[in-house]
Amino acid sequence: MTQRYALFFDIDGTLVSFQTHEIPASTILALTQDQQSGRY
Length: 40
Hints:
mainly alpha
């Protein structure tokens, strides 16, 4: 049986700040760590 992984996210202020219009460093770090772990 093959395992499948998925990341679900949206941009309602979670990934992109409404105030700065930038992606917070903490979000970039979390996505980078997930990518490096091979989860997706």
